[in-house]
Design goal:
eight-stranded parallel β-barrel; binds flavin mononucleotide
């Protein structure tokens, strides 16, 4: 059996502490080896906001292996956040070098930092010179990166920087910032990275089905490249919360268990009740439900009229009754082979 780790990707606004907890509980037969938490941005005044501290506290994440993520381009700010994490007992932190959002990129953070390889070099030099990462404190750093801002070939200048530092893992989303989350991933650059990285490489991007994992493994073996250290699942694992378990079964040579409608329904209900109990105001509950359901609607055939009704629902009760009808009546295809990127909000 291949010793490959399987991760749940961070999705800001989706895979928060509540989502992760419910996923870990309801899919405990197929847990992620780690859940990467959405990023927080430390500053000199506030190394970690109270909301982020609650989301990352050990008592709120029982039963899950969580790896926190920081968004920063200044070593001082990064180290403040990393020190706060170390005090909470964390031993690994991930650096966000992929976020394509305009407000982030305009501040040279996330994917924006990739356009300044010299600045990145200075950043890593300062971070790995700090006793937190170079001494006995045992803090480790992984990166989650795109290929660049505009052109995949930018990565030829970026990978050598990662190679110079004791980074634990390079998680690659093989697109550039300009491509956001659309279009084909650059498999050629993924294979280049796997061949030329001195660090373990994690594959991320468009892994929506077990077959996508199989095809990636085949691309590696066809090119004589050793299998990746890990796979990270984002939209596909929100859409099909059993995807990580299915991928694990496939890797172990076992039969792949299909996602059942009942399990997805139980997952939906748990998230619905969590939102109802926790969020103040109908509008927030409805927004959360619509955001989540956009990932699930693709699993139902002949769901167009439900899609419209769910989108137009104005109360949580209206949304729930329409969703229950959908679960009861619409044909379910547990392996749609794509992610439809359906929009419910806006
Ligand atoms: C709504 C949304 C929020 C995201 N938030 C984060 C984040 O906080 N940190 C991060 O590194 N990546 C973030 N990502 C990127 C995902 O982690 C992942 O890299 C991306 O979705 C591609 O993987 P996939 O094709 O498996 O979904 C986000 C993506 C989406 C769609």
């Amino acid at each position: 059996m291949l010793q490959v780790r399987l991760y749940f990707a961070p999705l800001e606004g989706v895979t928060d502490v509540h989502f992760r907890g419910i996923h870990a509980r309801l899919f405990s037969d197929s847990p992620a080896d780690a859940y990467f938490a959405p990023f927080f941005s430390p500053t000199a005044d506030t190394p970690m906001a109270e909301r982020d501290r609650r989301g990352l506290s050990r008592e709120n994440n029982i039963g899950q292996a969580v790896i926190p993520q920081i968004m920063a381009n200044k070593p001082e700010a990064f180290l403040l956040g990393a020190r706060a994490l170390s005090e909470m007992g964390y031993t690994e932190v991930n650096l966000n070098l992929g976020c394509p959002s305009g407000t982030v990129v305009s501040k040279n953070r996330g994917a924006g930092f990739l356009s300044d390889p010299d600045g990145m070099d200075r950043f890593f030099d300062a971070v790995f010179s700090d006793p937190l990462f170079s001494g006995g404190d045992g803090m480790h750093l992984s990166v989650k990166t795109r290929l660049g801002m505009f052109d995949p070939r930018e990565f030829y200048d970026i990978l050598p920087i990662y190679n110079r530092y004791p980074i634990t893992e390079v998680i690659l989303h093989p697109r550039v910032r300009r491509e956001l989350y659309r279009g084909d991933v650059h498999t050629d650059m993924l294979l280049y990275t796997a061949s030329n990285s001195v660090h373990p490489v994690c594959v991320n991007g468009d892994l929506f089905t077990v077959n996508d994992v199989r095809c990636t493994l085949k691309a590696f073996s066809d090119n004589g490249i050793i299998a990746p250290a890990s796979f990270m699942f984002g939209r596909g694992a929100v859409s099909n919360p059993q995807l990580i378990g299915q991928a694990r079964a496939m890797l172990m040579g076992k039969e792949v268990p299909p996602l059942s409608r009942d399990r997805l329904y139980a997952f939906f209900l748990a998230l619905y009740h969590d939102a109802k109990n926790r969020l103040s105001g109908e509008r927030h509950v409805l927004f959360r439900l619509k955001e989540l359901f956009a990932y699930w609607i693709v699993l139902f055939d002949e769901a167009d009229s439900y899609r419209r009704r769910l989108r137009k629902a104005e109360t949580a009760a209206e949304f729930l009754s329409c969703a229950e009808e959908l679960f009861a009546l619409c044909p379910f295809c547990e392996d749609p082979g794509f992610f439809g990127n359906a929009k419910m909000n806006g």
